[in-house]
Amino acid sequence: MRLRRTSKVAFDWLRTLFRNLYFWGGLGGLLVLGIGTYFLVDAMIMPSYTRHGVAVRVPDVENRPFKKAKKLARNRDLTVERQVGRYNPNVAQDVVVDQNPPPNADVKPGRRVYLTVNAGEVPMVDVPDLNGISVREAKNRVSALGLKVGTVNPDSIPSPYPNTITRQQPEPGDSLETGETVNLWYSTGLGTDTVQVPSVVGQTVETAQSRLRQQKLQATVVDPRTPDSPRDTSQSADTSATKRFVRRQGRDAGTKVRAGTKIRLFTTDDSTQVPAPNSTRQDTMAVN
After folding, report:
1. Which pTM value belongs to this model?
2. Which range marks the domain in which residue 88 is found?
C-alpha cells in the first residue's frame, strides 16, 4: 500500500514538472549555453592555444658550426637539442652532421630540433703489426682501423717473400689519431748479390739489427722465453731492443748468403749469458 502511494506521488511530481514552462526554458538555456561554449572553445580558444594552421620551416643547418646552427633554429622559434655522433675525420669538430626534423620540413613553432655534431675527441688507434702480410691485406687493415695508407715503397733491403710488408712507420703498437697515416715498405724478393753474415753476438738487439741492415740482411728476433726449437723461432720478442743482447745468431759469422736472407737472433735479458767480446772476435776471425 505504501509503495503504491509513493509511486503515485512521484508520478504526479514528474507530470507537474514536465508541464512547467520554466523547467523547459531552463533546460533549453543550458543546452544553448553548452553549444555556444563548445563553438567558442573550438573556434577561438583552441586554435590560439595549439596555433592551428601556423607552421615554421626548419632551416638547413647541416655542415654548419653548432653555435651558428643553433642561432638559425632559434630565430625560427624552434628549440634545439645537441647530440654527439661518431667521429668523422673529414668533418671539423662540433660541426652539424645530421638534423631531425630534416631541412625544409614544416613544423609547429617551438618544436624541438635534434642536431648531431661531429665528436669532439679524436679516437686513438693502436697500429697493428703488418710485417709479413701482403701489401693488399696491409692496406685493408689500415683502412679498416680508420687510418690512411701513406707511401708504399719497395724496401731497399731484399727479403725472401715478394710483395709482403717488411717495414712500417709508425711501428706496431704505437698510437695514432684516427685519420693519420701509416707508411709501408714491401719486399721485391731476395737480392742477386751475395753478402757475408757479420758477427753480432754480444751486441744489443738494436745494434745487431742495424748491422744486418747495412749488409742488406733481415733480422728475426727470437723471444728469450721461447725454446730453441725450429717451430718456436718465428716468435718475435718485444721492441725493447736497447736492453736485450744477442747470445747466439742463426747463421755463423762469415757465412755467405743472398742479400735479403733472414738471420735469426737468439736474445737474452741477462747480460751474464752474453759471450765475452774476446770470444766473439775470435769466432769471427776463425770463420774468416
Report:
1. 0.48
2. 56-117
